[in-house]
Write a structure and sequence with these properties.
Length: 465
Amino acid sequence: MKFLDVLDRAQTGEVCRLKEWDMKVIPNKVKEKLKEYGLEGTFDPNNPINTDDGLADDFWEAGFELAVDVGMLCMSTDRVIKFTEGELKKYINDAPDEMQLGYGKDSFKVVKRKPSDGKHVSPWLGPFGIAVDENLYIPIMAASAQYRVLDAVIPGCLQTIYGRPIRSKTPYETLAGNYEARLQREALKAVGRPFMPAQGGNTSPSEYGNFGGVGVPGGADQMNNLNVVLAPSELKTDYSLLHKVAHFINCETFIYTGHHSFVHGFPGPTEGAALVAVAAACLLASVHQGTFQGADTLDAQNVSNSGKQTLWSSSISAQAISRNTHLLVGGMINPVSGPNTEMLLQECAVLSIMTGVSGYSFVVGVRSAGGGLPNYTSGLESKFSAEVLLASAGIDVDLANGIINEIIPKYENKLKNPPRGVPFSECTNLQTLQPKKEWHEIYEKYKNFLFDMGLDLTKAYRLNR
């Protein structure tokens, strides 16, 4: 079993303490690779989506080499898990280039894509990890799942189980994993999408929620659940995450694994974050045995990814991976503004366009208000993002940059102090799950704006998916 080899290396690899990894290994090695490959200062603020294919290929070469040289730190053992160039290439080559998910009318394929091709890019959207009140969990999830333009739904996180706080690594969490799966089924059935994939274990701060919620009676369907293992930044894992991998292997299911690299964080500049994102995709396919690799970048200063630097770094890393591998790589929609604001749809638009033209196979989101405010979500931003995403697949990168450069100035100076908007119940009709009048009018405004810019959102409903 390949995973046993990973576990062995977590026991026998070279010793490295966490502080040394974060403060020396990552910054120094990233700086070295950027200089060696001439990648310093290549960020182009005038083109938030990279337009240079050769540069993307250079990032691939440097990022793959970074993955070989550095590996991934297991924080539980203070050991570095490393692979030779040949081993890492084999893991990447052995990863699938397409996956069938869902059943019946809710079935779809996630496929390998290249930049600017017209192949289907899969929207996995919803309240994405936002803390939600227990009594609102079903309507909040259903408000996104009702829109058939979404392939899968990424739910919010329960704050309580039958009114009791969920405490990490306690029986509360184990029970909450199963409870969450049952609530998800109820929400999907309520909107006529019982076989729509959803991300399970979203509520779980540790592995215990996955143990209770996947592959057990009453739990999630392990063959249709988006089983997630998220790596800490930068290039780290631990036994809690490796427990999840082992459990999903025992369940004979696939694994969605992800990583966020930080601009202005340990990798340093914009180019450094892009380089680490490329390395992360390689290592997620090996250490976390990923079927799907989420590899994107965030801004450490405001934890958004809708600024020019993070748009560019996510774009070029996705191009690097998708041009040189068949990995099913995913992006993320992580706006900092909240529901019922124009800025939220502005951020969603630029992120969806970037994702659609950069070669990503799927995208997860939408973390409205940066995911920091309970119940600050609605289904409308998920619908809008999916429509923009599907409409942008196959468009020319120059058109994409043109639209994005029209939108970014509308919100760029608000990223550090964004409008928070209103919570779910104030922008959504709780009986119909439809957006209230003001919120729907904002949606119509930006739908028409994009049409005038050359992006027809109705394309999303005409595609043969």
